[in-house]
Specification:
Helix content: over 70%
Number of strands: 0
CATH architecture: Orthogonal Bundle
Largest sheet: none
Shape: flat
Radius of gyration: 21 Å
CATH topology: MetI-like fold
Distance between the termini: 48 Å
Number of helices: 8
CATH class: Mainly Alpha
Length: about 220
């Protein structure tokens, strides 16, 4: 193990980690927004839109992120629509993550019993008040584990964006291996970098889940 090489490579991994975190942040944020809107469309069975959302979910969940990125980066360029690699990565993560988040939110919404909804309506709550005070708090509690798992999944999926020449952690590791043939060192640093990023996030999500469960909404 060449520890001098590892020490010299740390700044490269730190910079790559910043790129990975930025992509993850925007990808997860947009996927939460997309997923929440899609789940509401399905939950309220909005005509036509519900079918479009179902097609989107099936298409997104059953195609690899790598193919989606290639389609955005190379496919659209063939018809004159060009996106930067950074934008393609965010759009790809949001497109993939939105479908998973939609299912997570939908499962939470459907977990709220009809009796509670009928009770809310019987005491005079309108649709907005019903959603705000009864449905969303419980749905969010039920959906938190799936949302957290999806967030971690998307963060790990950023390793694919190196295929469109974005200097994320995977790109830097492959670059160092190609230039210096330091495979063990580069991959060790890659594993450590992902652990440093993912472990605190995983622990934080576990803490939030327990807090929400203890509030009385979960099991």
């Amino acid at each position: 193990m060449d520890f001098d090489f590892i020490v010299k490579s740390i700044p490269l991994y730190v910079k790559a980690a910043e790129v990975t975190l930025e992509l993850s942040f925007w990808g997860i944020l947009l996927s939460l927004i997309i997923g929440f809107i899609c789940s509401l469309v399905i939950y309220y069975k909005v005509k036509l839109l519900a079918q479009v959302v179902q097609i989107y979910i099936e298409l997104s969940r059953n195609t690899p992120l790598l193919i989606q990125l290639f389609f955005l980066y190379y496919g659209f360029a063939k018809i004159g629509i060009k996106f930067e690699a950074y934008s393609c990565a965010i759009f790809g993560l949001a497109f993939l993550g939105g479908s998973y988040m939609a299912e997570a939110f939908r499962s939470g919404l459907e977990a709220v019993s009809k009796i509670q909804i009928e009770t809310g309506l019987s005491v005079g709550l309108n649709r907005w008040q019903l959603m705000r005070y009864i449905i969303l708090p419980q749905a969010f509690s039920v959906a938190i584990p799936a949302i957290g798992a999806n967030a971690i999944f998307l963060l790990k999926e950023t390793s694919v964006v190196s295929a469109i020449a974005l200097a994320d952690l995977m790109f830097v590791a492959k670059d160092l291996i190609g230039m210096y043939y330091k495979t063990t060192e580069a991959l060790t640093m890659l594993v450590v970098a992902y652990l440093i990023i993912l472990l605190p996030i995983s622990l934080l999500l576990t803490f939030i889940e327990r807090k929400v469960r203890h509030a009385g909404f979960g099991n």
